[in-house]
Amino acid sequence: MSSPDVVIVGAGLAGLTAAALLAQEGLEVALIEQEQDVGGKLRILEREGFRLDGGLHCFHYGDAGPLGELDRLLGLGISYLESPNASYILRCKNLLPVPPESGTDPHDVPGFTAAEAQKIRDWFSRLMEADASEWDKKSVAEFLAASGFSDDELIASYAAAQCLTVLGRNISEVSAGLIIAHSKAVGHPGFHVSVIAGGTGKLVAALTEKISRDHVRTLLGNKVVEIKVEAKGVAQVISSSEEFSPAAVIYTAPAQYIPEQLTGDKAAASLARKCKRLTPIAGIALEFGLASRISEIRGVMIDPEEAVIGRFPSNLDPSLAPEGRQIASWLALVSPEDLAEVKEAGSHIKRLRRVALKQFPEMEEQVKFERLRAIHIISAAAPLPTQSLEKRPGVAVKQIKNLFLAGDGASGKGLLSGLAVSSAMEAVERVKKFLAKNQEEPTE
Q1: Is the pLDDT of residue 52 over 50?
Q2: Measured between alpha carbons, how far is 373 from 285 in angstroms, rounded to an integer?
Q3: CB hemisphere CA count around 150 (13 angstroms)
């Protein structure tokens, strides 16, 4: 049995972040990953010269977000491509550009009347004036009602589109506090898009380089089968090939997996119950490799009624597709329960395909290949009012002294991928303090 300073469960974005930061501190780390490669949903799939993002990632705030902070700490050399004011709401067959910054003339917003454009800006102003902390546990639908917009079809549609940008299915299922905080971070009514230049594989490569030359031992193809808790602390981590007795553990896999792995005293049972209650984000993804370019749109296209998000990733980053060709990426958010039913999942697939081809019928003749995926956990925690950050499992597990959680289901700063990074950074700081404190305490 080996005894590293830290065992990290999962080698996705949060796991790689934690491993790279701990390696920089000179700590001995065992990074356990059940797949045959690191990166999780960050991995890039290459097919016929196209490079497809495994997790449909968007780092909402670019260099100003958690990943930018990590880049400065580790010198990863990451750069971003952004298209803040090139977003559209899909209404029937129309592509309506989202009204840009408030300084522009409402009469200059195509697709909307001046009154409609001004109304959207008025709604956005209400968000910018509100206190996010007061609305964390209330829905966007409740905020609409309190703001006097509950009967306004345009604003309800626009608010639903905002919810989709944080992967919330509708205005009743998204925390108003989260939308308020996100609006303030973005600073304009558009739907901000920020991606890594060269694709997420660039980030995987940069983080992998940091851990490969230091103190991290990476175990691939290893599934964690048991995490034994004794006296309110992790005593052992047992994988499919090896057993560990670490000083601390950082768990970065989806929190929904914890109940099947934790064993031991009441502290383990308490955490398992909390994680089991988390509702994840689930969806159907459909990506097309196109023989020619059919659109110049660089931002996102959002259909609030169908809960569908569309993008042409290679328009923002041409390196993702062969010259003259194009990637079209579409995502429909669905309930986790629907994915478990073959009939329901099939109906969502048809709906997603219908939305994409209704908007771009010419796409059907240009398809070289398509990739269809049912994604049961896009993110471990949906942005529900009942799952606001303070309601989620904390990075430091109160019941288990040497167990720390990280990933997009934990608490932290940012959204989705950014949250995975920020929670991993916080977990590392807490681990360092925990280890330092234990070293100072005299042993019996």
Answers
A1: yes
A2: 5
A3: 9
Residue 327, strand partner residues: 289
Nearest-angstrom CA–CA distance, 135 and 133:
5
Other C-beta atoms within 10 Å of 186: how many?
18
Identify whether 75 is part of a domain: no
Residue 362: pLDDT over 90: yes
> Between the CA of residue 262 and those of 221, 252, 275, what are the distances in Å?
20, 14, 11
Question: What pTM was estimated for this model as a whole?
Answer: 0.93
- What CA–CA distance (Å, rounded) separates 5 from 215? 10
pLDDT of residue 146: 96
Q: Are both 341 and 388 inside the same structural domain?
A: no
Q: Determine how β-strand 326-334 pairs with β-strand 308-311.
A: antiparallel
Q: Are 99 and 122 in contact (CB under 8 A)?
A: no
Find the domain containing 212 and state its range: 6-62+200-278+383-440
Q: Which segments of 255-341 does DSSP mark as H helices, in order?
A: 266-276, 313-316, 336-339
For residue 444, what pLDDT is reported? 47
